[in-house]
Amino acid sequence: MSRLTVDAAADAHSVLWLGHGAGGGIEALDLAALAATLPARGITVVRYEQPWRLAGKKVAPRPAALDAAWLEVAPIVRTIHAGIPLITGGRSAGARVACRTAEAVSAAAVICLAFPLHPPAHPERSRADELLMPRVPVLVLQGERDAFGSADLVASAIADTESITTVSIPGADHSMAVLKSSPYTPESTANLITASVAAFIERL
């Protein structure tokens, strides 16, 4: 069993469907900030919880199982606001799912929060091929200190791809957290993420 949490816009022009990562749920800083902010700008936010997490398991299943669970609820998500663009996305593992399934769900665009370009300390095991799978515009918001691939590394991996836009989140790690000594704060980080996503969707 999976679960959808809907933060609806009063007069929606787009739906943003987001999945969580392998190490956390829909309460993650970036996912929560988007759900709290975007409905006021006409974007309904749907946060999806994978069955494995609701079952209390500690480890996510293989990618094929994640994709299948996501695709199973796609018809339900489509009924939330029929007839308006559906943008899919997620953080970390959820971003990978969104990239792999973008064509299958007819996504108008994909938003990747903390895309795990490679396992920590193993840049040679690149997942850039997944990031390149969508045939629609893609926005990647990547922490400057992300151990799964910094913003600079992601930008380098997709340098020749005009359909992908990368936004560097200053001072942020994979969870979008910043150091206490940093001039940046959780609030400024959340504001940058939400403003970047809203502007991207409004340009579609």
TrEMBL record:
Q: Does the keyword Hydrolase apply?
A: yes
Coiled-coil features, chain-numbered ranges = none
Q: Which UniProt keywords apply?
A: Hydrolase
Originating species: Homoserinimonas hongtaonis
User: Recorded GO terms, molecular function?
Assistant: hydrolase activity
Among InterPro entries, the record links this protein to:
AB_hydrolase_fold, KANL3/Tex30_Abhydrolase, NSL3/Tex30
Superkingdom of the source?
Answer: Bacteria
The identity of this protein, by name, is Hydrolase
Q: Which residues form the KANL3/Tex30 alpha/beta hydrolase-like domain?
A: 15-202
